[in-house]
UniProtKB/TrEMBL annotation:
This is Homocysteine S-methyltransferase. Its cofactor is Zn(2+). Gene3D superfamilies: Homocysteine-binding-like domain. InterPro entries: HCY_dom, HCY_dom_sf. Residues 4-311 form the Hcy-binding domain. It comes from Mesorhizobium amorphae CCNWGS0123. One of its GO terms (biological process) is methylation. GO terms for molecular function: metal ion binding; methyltransferase activity.
Amino acid sequence: MTMAKINLRELSEAVLLTDGGLETSLVFLDGLDLPSFAAFPLLGEEEGRERLGRYFRQYLDIADKYGVGFVLDTPTWRANPDWGEKLCYSKKALSGIDQQAVSWARALAAPYAARGMIVLVNGVVGPRGDGYRVETVMTPAEAEAYHGDQIKAFRDAGADMISAVTMTYSQEAAGIACAAMGAGLPSVISFTVETDGRLPSGESLKDAIETVDDETDGAPAYFMINCAHPSHFEAVLAGDGGWLGRIRGVRANASAKSHAELDAATELDPGDPVDLGRRYRAMRDRFGHIGVLGGCCGTDARHIAAICDACL
């Protein structure tokens, strides 16, 4: 599927699945060493591409079973200049990786799309710094410039959309949305929250969403929450206001532990897949527009299947 055929806003009623926790699955379940928690170097070798293919096919198969669409992420969460430098990748090499990631994802999606499944190839943009804390703070203009090359690489390779995942503060998110708008790509902004339901920056979810919409004239197609257990943000969603209607997706963690606890963990906490599914169902019962369903750290195919069993 291409941008000419798919408009994210026209899919507002559709249920779309995502995968689970890519990096945690590779590290804790497959026993891989991922320096800087980066999966994108796997694209550089045949064995790595095959491993990524096996990982994503299990989720595509679940979507196929339940007759829903799928948002197929590129494994590029760490493929930005700061993290790339730590891993000895130049900016030019990173652009090549980003374009390769889109082509690889498109080929992986092809058999499913040929059967009529909606598969959106999604260029994933991660935070400049750590996904659990605010480090380097950029203005929206600085963030737009910083992330612009990656987003242009996704566009040039034919991605359907981009998603800014695990955003810790609103200014960086706004800059990414502006860069996507400038590149002609639809964008999704996904914030992470702490156990109190606030972003690592201390901003409320409401303020962060409204700030991005104000800074970008409502450019993002929708917003998401990721890398937090539902128990961390359920109370926030109990409020009211138009901003809640902008939240279309959830990619929760399996564990109810805090970011600090997860960062220090040496073993995976898989939580309770059935309970996670029930929590997603409760969110869907209250907010029928939340239709992009997936997982983040600690989740695997069991969790996504349980979410489908509960919600579909």
